[in-house]
Amino acid sequence: MKFDAVEAGIYPDLIHPAYKSTLKRGPVQPALRIDAPLPATQNIAPAPRILLPHDADLTRRGQGQPLGEKIVVTGRVTDEDGKPVRNSLLEVWQANSAGRYWHQRDQHDAPLDPNFFGFGKLLTDDDGRYRFVSIKPGPYPWKNHDKAWRPAHIHFSLFGNVYAQRLVTQMYFPNDPLFPYDPIFNSVPDEAARLSLVSRFSLEHTVGAEMLGYEFDIVLRGRDATPFGL
Amino acid sequence: MSTITTSQTIGPFSHEGWQWAVDGCASLSTSAPTIVLEGVVYDGDGNPVDDAQIEAWLPHAAASEAGQEIPGFRRTPTGARGEFSLRLSAPARPAGEPVAYITVFARGLTRHQFTAVFLEDDPALAASGILEQVPAARRATLLARANGAGSYRWDIWLQTDKETVFFDYS
Fold first, then answer.
1. How far apart are CA A72 and CA A207, in angstroms?
2. What's the whole-model pTM score?
3. Is there a contact between A155 and B168 if contact means CB atoms under 8 Å apart?
4. Is residue B36 part of a domain?
5. ipTM for this prediction
6. Chain B residues close to A50, C-beta within 8 Å
């Protein structure tokens, strides 16, 4: 595949002063654009046994039902040509409905849910589609500044079809009132690029009286190398 | 304008969700000789980054690790002192290829960073198509120092005059 340079404003700023920990962690030198054949043509190939029962249903990992609003999140992963990213590994992780992560370092004074751990993994299908069941995560405070609350989000990790397509991002929910105040969301300068991280409510994917549907499509970098002269 | 989905930081809470792949490469079955690559991730003040995640991709080693959950792949979180340690298959590979392609993720890093690590005692370094694209003054940031007995040291610097060269693959 070929990877066009990403236009200014699409990626988040590596140093975004309002997001304080970027100040000493964001690389200062511009990324060096290089040609490297393998990252643009090959990738990891996980063994099928990595996928375990209920990896794609985060509500079925405990002894009982987790608390909160059950949701289904689905979408299609494509490349910049609109071609499906097939059979590709996708990881998700998130806070519970109270805004608490199942994680040793999360000190937020909100309850853990013994029936919700908040992580899963799955493969896209032959059409690039994915679908997992979860609980709508809650917003949570994060001490970056006074009254710093993260809008509710689900973390996504994608491996793409070639190594250079790797992406880690966050999916948000429609119309979150916290968007204007969140330095992480706003580390992306371009408004359209920011809004590409917001899922859509989907009546089509809503499942009866069981759970609401959200749709989140993902476009990974990369397009087919066009044969010379075409 | 580009239509790609943009990046967001991995944040501080990836560890539980990412652990399966850490466990999957904790024990290694390989037909190739191995090396140990150790290092520390540092921020711009020289402080260790204790909540980074490091991934190593070894495309030339995948065939020698066919029994692994993800052949030719490693993932490890950094420890309390910013440290990481990776045992890597190091089979014969085309001249000038890195021993591993590396991806770095961390809280405060708004997008992942691609880099690659080469062994300083690799006699084929001069033939590397990647290194020849790196300004000479910065090439040393991609070279792991031999520590003897198959052990190598390679630190990752996110900033300062030691800042590691990070790539944008074209």
1. 8
2. 0.97
3. no
4. yes
5. 0.97
6. 20-21, 24, 69-70
CB A86 within 8 A of CB A78: no
Mutate to test the interface with A, among B1, B3, B9 (most CBs of A within 10 A): B9
Backbone angles phi, psi at A153, to 5 degrees: -155, 160
**A208 CB-near residues (< 8 Å, 6+ apart):** none
Residue B27 touches partner A, C-beta closer than 8 Å: no
Please indicate if any CB of chain A lies within 8 Å of the CB of B85. no
Q: Is A145 a catalytic residue?
A: no
Q: Which chain B residue is nearest to residue A12, measuring alpha carbons?
A: B110
Residue B137 lies inside a defined structural domain of this protein = yes
Q: Is B47 inside any structural domain?
A: yes
Tokens of A60: 């079925």
Q: Does A61 touch chain B (CB under 8 A)?
A: no
pLDDT digits over B108-134, tens only?
A: 999 999 999 999 999 999 999 999 999
Q: Note down the domain range covering B89.
A: 15-151
Is B117 exposed, middle or buried (CB count within 10 Å of its CB: 0-12, 13-18, 19+)?
buried
Q: In this model, does residue B30 exceed pLDDT 90?
A: yes
Give CATH for domain A20-25+36-219. 2.60.130.10
Looking at the structure of chain B, the number of domains it has is 1
| Residue range A136-161, pLDDT digits in tens | 999 999 999 999 999 999 999 999 99
Residue B164 lies in a domain: no
Residue A101 annotated in active site: yes
